[in-house]
Specification:
By secondary structure, the protein is mainly alpha-helical. It has helices spanning about 5-40, 50-70. The protein is elongated. About 0% of the residues are buried.
Protein backbone atom coordinates (compact mmCIF):
# COMPACT_ATOMS: atom_id res chain seq x y z
CA UNK A 1 0.00 0.00 0.00
CA UNK A 2 1.19 3.45 -0.78
CA UNK A 3 1.19 6.24 1.73
CA UNK A 4 -0.83 9.40 1.06
CA UNK A 5 1.07 12.45 -0.09
CA UNK A 6 1.85 14.62 3.01
CA UNK A 7 2.67 17.70 0.91
CA UNK A 8 -0.89 19.16 0.94
CA UNK A 9 -0.99 18.85 4.74
CA UNK A 10 2.32 20.70 5.07
CA UNK A 11 1.14 23.43 2.72
CA UNK A 12 -2.05 23.82 4.75
CA UNK A 13 -0.03 24.06 7.98
CA UNK A 14 2.18 26.78 6.48
CA UNK A 15 -0.88 28.67 5.28
CA UNK A 16 -2.60 28.41 8.68
CA UNK A 17 0.57 29.56 10.46
CA UNK A 18 0.92 32.55 8.10
CA UNK A 19 -2.72 33.46 8.75
CA UNK A 20 -2.16 33.37 12.53
CA UNK A 21 0.94 35.54 12.19
CA UNK A 22 -0.99 37.99 10.04
CA UNK A 23 -3.71 38.19 12.69
CA UNK A 24 -1.12 38.76 15.39
CA UNK A 25 0.48 41.65 13.51
CA UNK A 26 -2.95 43.19 12.92
CA UNK A 27 -3.65 43.15 16.66
CA UNK A 28 -0.24 44.70 17.39
CA UNK A 29 -0.90 47.43 14.79
CA UNK A 30 -4.30 48.23 16.32
CA UNK A 31 -2.83 48.44 19.82
CA UNK A 32 -0.02 50.76 18.70
CA UNK A 33 -2.42 53.02 16.78
CA UNK A 34 -4.76 53.21 19.78
CA UNK A 35 -1.86 54.13 22.07
CA UNK A 36 -0.70 56.89 19.69
CA UNK A 37 -4.22 58.28 19.31
CA UNK A 38 -4.61 58.31 23.10
CA UNK A 39 -1.27 60.07 23.51
CA UNK A 40 -2.34 62.78 21.06
CA UNK A 41 -5.61 63.41 22.88
CA UNK A 42 -4.45 63.49 26.52
CA UNK A 43 -3.95 67.03 27.90
CA UNK A 44 -0.40 67.84 28.95
CA UNK A 45 0.21 69.50 32.34
CA UNK A 46 1.91 72.87 31.65
CA UNK A 47 -0.93 74.41 29.64
CA UNK A 48 -3.61 71.66 29.55
CA UNK A 49 -3.45 71.43 25.75
CA UNK A 50 -3.30 68.13 23.94
CA UNK A 51 -0.37 67.26 21.72
CA UNK A 52 -2.66 67.63 18.69
CA UNK A 53 -3.63 71.15 19.77
CA UNK A 54 0.01 72.10 20.33
CA UNK A 55 0.89 70.75 16.89
CA UNK A 56 -1.93 72.76 15.31
CA UNK A 57 -0.74 75.93 17.09
CA UNK A 58 2.82 75.33 15.89
CA UNK A 59 1.65 74.91 12.29
CA UNK A 60 -0.48 78.08 12.52
CA UNK A 61 2.43 80.04 13.97
CA UNK A 62 4.80 78.77 11.28
CA UNK A 63 2.32 79.63 8.54
CA UNK A 64 1.78 83.14 9.97
CA UNK A 65 5.55 83.72 10.10
CA UNK A 66 5.95 82.37 6.57
CA UNK A 67 3.25 84.61 5.13
CA UNK A 68 4.74 87.62 6.93
CA UNK A 69 8.17 86.82 5.47
CA UNK A 70 6.74 86.42 1.98
CA UNK A 71 4.91 89.75 2.24
CA UNK A 72 8.15 91.67 2.89
CA UNK A 73 9.48 93.68 -0.06
Amino acid sequence: MSRPNPAPERAFCRLARAHRQSGQSTIAYVIICAALATALLVPLPPNNLTAAQQLAQAVRSYYADLTFFLSLP
